[in-house]
Write a structure and sequence with these properties.
332 residues; alpha/beta; five-stranded antiparallel sheet; 27% helix; EC 1.-.-.-; oxidoreductase activity; GroES-like_sf; oxidoreductase
Length: 332
């Protein structure tokens, strides 16, 4: 059984030398175990994240551990009543030829011997990546018919499905990808309404031209400059499904923004303006009640004199006030 074990944490792009290729005999099965011949390994951007010793949604792969990866294999020996020889199994296979799997292990799906879908598709559009796109566009940032959806890394696995789901849902879909060939693929083969090449010098102008009504939904896979450009095109009330930030996965430094934590911790952040609030009367009543009951302390710093307005305004920025800063301009 050949295994690739993480030897050193890569810096930048992953190198072969970051892994030990070890060869080990396939272990004898115990009761309840099956031996799975790994057939396909899913190559995922998150694999690169798992190699990094940073806070994330799963423990990083430890040095010396078989590299974690999703994959698909076929049962070649079974000492389990639940799995039979020939069954297909999908789940974490790791970077190795064979996997010994216990029948009670969590996170594995048994598929019929002939699932009727090409096996690589089960790892992509009909598997985890397709589900990612579907989840993002149905629950995280639903897109409505007629709205403009922008998808980054649009020619990749998640992005290509996200864009096509957007079309199925009746959105106007704009894909962002690197290079003219990928852009043509998006429009000519996948039916996107427009495609924008983020590697082109006039990327921002292209994006602007492709989104004349602004962007209602951004399915974001890239982050960094690409995301910044899309955010600048968002309409009021737009939605962002923050799926991934691949542009930072190889970097050795922590990115200057904190968007990664939004993905890892499934955070939501929603900008708002009080002027949109429709329950102002109710809020003022509640606040006044709490103040009268002594539940809410109201503090003001009162400065004097209309002529002092400019200097007093600056106190907001040097912190030399507490609570609400007001200017008294006349006696009551
Ligand atoms: P892809 O098949 O999309 O491959 C990655 C693509 O990203 C590349 O083909 C490349 O396309 C583009 N890319 C790479 N580096 C950069 C860069 N620096 N700037 C701009 N584009 C870049 O991979 P996946 O579909 O598997 O993953 C896409 C995204 O979805 C990733 O961010 C991944 O982490 C995320 N993801 C999130 C999940 C979740 O549960 N939140 C689940 C699965 C994936 P190009 O040629 O156009 O540059």
């Amino acid at each position: 059984n050949r295994q690739l074990r993480l030897k050193t944490r890569p810096e930048g792009l992953v190198r072969r030398e970051d892994f030990d290729l070890v060869e080990q005999p396939v272990p004898a099965l115990k009761d309840g175990e099956v031996l799975v011949r790994v057939l396909y390994i899913s190559m995922d951007p998150t694999n690169r994240v798992w190699m990094r010793d940073i806070p994330q949604y799963l423990p990083p792969v430890a040095i010396g551990e078989v590299m974690r990866a999703l994959g698909l294999g076929r049962v070649v020996q079974s000492r389990s009543a639940q799995y039979h020889e020939g069954d297909l199994v999908q789940g974490v296979t790791g970077w190795q030829d064979y996997l010994v799997l216990h029948e009670n292990a969590n996170g594995y799906v048994r598929l019929p011997a002939d699932p009727g879908i090409p096996l690589p598709t089960l790892l992509g559009a009909a598997g985890m990546n397709g589900v990612t796109a579907y989840y993002g566009l149905t629950e995280i940032a639903p897109v409505q018919p007629g709205e403009t959806l922008v998808v980054s890394a649009a020619a990749g696995s998640v992005g290509s499905v996200a864009g096509q789901i957007g079309k199925i849902m009746g959105a106007r879909v704009v894909g962002i990808a690197g290079g003219a060939d990928k852009c043509r693929y998006l429009t000519d083969e996948l039916g996107f309404d427009a495609a924008v090449d983020y590697k082109a010098a006039d990327f921002k102008q292209q994006l602007k031209a492709a989104t004349p009504d602004g962007v209602h939904v951004n399915f974001e896979n890239v982050g960094g400059e690409v995301m910044r450009a899309v955010l600048s095109r968002m309409v009021i009330g737009g939605r962002v499904a923050l799926c991934g930030l691949i542009s930072s996965y190889n970097s050795t430094e922590r990115p200057s923004d904190d968007f990664g934590v939004f993905v890892m911790k499934r955070l939501s952040m929603r900008g708002f303006l009080v002027l949109d609030y429709t329950k102002t009367r109710e809020a003022v009543q509640a606040l006044g009640g709490w103040i009268r009951e002594g539940k809410l302390k109201a503090e003001e710093t009162v400065a004097e004199g209309l002529e002092n307005a400019p200097e007093v305004l600056n106190r907001l920025f040097d912190g030399s006030h507490r609570g609400k800063l007001v200017l008294r301009v006349a006696a009551q």
